[in-house]
């Protein structure tokens, strides 16, 4: 007996430094275990896929670069979908899920993914899975891992719906075509109205079922109105929200404390002589308001007494000491006060399946 072919979905990634590609490769690797086949392409390879005719669900992993721009590999794609002449139903046939990568240290967080997501919605595309926005500032895996875990069920639900929709459209077209040749023209209006009625009744029934289910979910989740919040239950609106706690990822980092104290024996391999300078700060201006969550400073450094060559586009790193009291408090909380002066060696474990 021939084995049943795996159900396909289109997997696109847009990367700047490789993180989005690594996550897409992880999705591609896991797909087989869920009976699915990922047709993976860089979003720039527009000759290898066609969203205008794509019938299967689409998964997009896209990062952000610069001050909120899409990656270089996505610029051609973004320019194409931002064409103002495209009709609002251009992607009405499309089902997609999007995972955006970004860093909340920057002003326009995940703007690359948000731009694509917003434009696809404007062109009629529909989500089959909620958009995920991963923050490199706190760790991409906090969003990426749970998002991938939930992707498989969403895909399996989306694939039958897509096939059912295609079968229904094919059946309606076939009936309309055969009857239009057999019946007089006077009956065509009646047939069309009956087909439209069937569609409306089907959509109405589904909407009613979905609404009923959501109301049931809210009724189950909501506690009695006269209760007070405590350690074991909450009150609306929190109690009516779906709260996701990310699973603890498998260990892939190895941390070793070294007995060496004083001069770091490995520091010379990281910083070569003649490339590090101690310079005074001549000006510091706070650019953000006092109530801002994050503080942005304008710093001016005096490099008059340094001698180094640089070219436009070169980057430099500023190494600043941490606040002593904050470091001591953190060591105390972690139970590492006795190891405060030890050097730490951090390595990626061999054989880890963690990507990126």
Q: Would you give an account of this structure?
A:
The protein is α/β, with parallel strands linked by helices and 356 residues long. Among the domains are: 7-158, Flavodoxin domain (Rossmann fold), CATH 3.40.50; 253-277 and 307-348, no CATH class. Helices cover 35% and strands 16% of the residues. It contains seven helices and ten strands. Strands 1, 2, 3, 4, 5 and 6 form a six-stranded parallel sheet that branches. A two-stranded antiparallel ribbon has the order 7-10. The longest helix has 42 residues, at 141-182. The chain is globular and about 65 Å long. The model is unreliable at 182-189 and 217-225 (pLDDT under 50).
Structural class designation: alpha/beta
| Global geometry | globular
- Write down the CATH topology of the domain at 7-158: Rossmann fold
Main beta sheet strand tally, sense and closure? 6 strands, parallel
**Averaged pLDDT:** 78
CATH class category name of the domain at 7-158? Alpha Beta
Helicity, in percent?
25-40%
The named CATH superfamily of the domain at 7-158: Flavodoxin domain
Q: What is the first-to-last residue Cα distance?
A: 40 Å
* CATH architecture classification name of the domain at 7-158: 3-Layer(aba) Sandwich
Rg measurement, Å: 28 Å
Could you tell me the number of beta strands? 10
Based on the model shown, name its key terms:
about 350 residues; alpha/beta; Rossmann fold; six-stranded parallel sheet; two-stranded antiparallel sheet; 7 helices; 10 strands; oxidoreductase; [methionine synthase] reductase (NADPH) activity; Flavdoxin-like
């Amino acid at each position: 007996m021939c084995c049943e072919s795996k159900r396909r979905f289109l997997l696109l990634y847009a990367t700047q430094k490789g993180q989005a590609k690594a996550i897409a490769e992880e999705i591609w690797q896991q797909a087989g275990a869920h009976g699915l086949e990922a047709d993976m392409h860089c979003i720039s390879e527009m000759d290898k896929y066609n969203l205008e005719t794509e019938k299967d669900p689409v998964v997009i992993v896209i990062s952000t670069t610069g001050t909120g721009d899409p990656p270089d590999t996505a610029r051609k794609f973004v320019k194409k979908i931002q064409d103002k002449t495209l009709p609002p139903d251009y992607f009405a046939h499309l089902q997609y899920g999007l995972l955006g990568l970004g860093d909340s240290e920057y002003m326009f967080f995940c703007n690359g993914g948000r731009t694509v997501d917003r434009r696809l919605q404007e062109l009629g595309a529909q989500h089959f899975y909620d958009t995920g926005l991963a923050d490199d500032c706190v760790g991409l895996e906090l969003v990426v891992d749970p998002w991938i875990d939930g992707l498989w069920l969403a895909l399996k639900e989306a694939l039958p719906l897509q096939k059912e929709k295609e079968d229904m459209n094919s059946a309606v077209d076939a009936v309309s075509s055969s009857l239009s040749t057999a019946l007089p023209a006077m009956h065509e209006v009646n047939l069309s109205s009956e087909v439209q009625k069937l569609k409306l009744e089907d959509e109405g029934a589904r909407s009613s079922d979905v609404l009923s289910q959501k109301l049931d979910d809210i009724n189950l989740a909501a506690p009695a109105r006269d209760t007070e919040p405590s350690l074991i239950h909450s009150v609306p609106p929190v109690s009516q929200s779906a709260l996701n706690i990310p699973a603890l990822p498998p260990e892939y980092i190895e941390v070793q404390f070294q007995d060496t104290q004083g001069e770091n024996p490995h520091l010379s391999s990281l910083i070569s002589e003649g490339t590090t300078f101690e310079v005074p700060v001549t000006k510091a201006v706070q650019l953000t308001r006092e109530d801002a969550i994050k503080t942005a400073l304008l710093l001016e450094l005096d490099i008059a007494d340094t001698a180094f060559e640089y070219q436009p586009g070169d980057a430099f790193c500023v190494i600043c000491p941490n606040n002593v009291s904050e470091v001591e408090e953190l060591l105390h909380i972690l139970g590492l006060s006795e190891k405060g002066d030890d050097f730490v060696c951090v390595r990626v474990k061999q054989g880890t399946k963690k990507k990126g």
